[in-house]
Amino acid sequence: MYAPVPPGYGAPGQGYGAPNPQPRKGRRWLWPLVAVVVAALVWGVVIAVAGHRASGATARADLRGYHAVDDLCTATDFAPLTGLGFTVSPGEDGAKNPSAATFRHAALDQMGCDIAFIVPGSKDAEYPVTASVGISAALHKQADPGPEFAAAYQSQVTGDFTDDFPQSKVTRVPGLADDAYQVIQPDTEQFPRTDVKLFVRDGWMVYSLTFFEERGSDEINATIPSETDALAMLTTIAKSGMAKLEA
Question: What is the 3-state secondary structure (H, E, C) of 156-185?
Answer without folding.
Answer: HHCCCCCCCCCCCEEEECCCCCCEEEEEEC
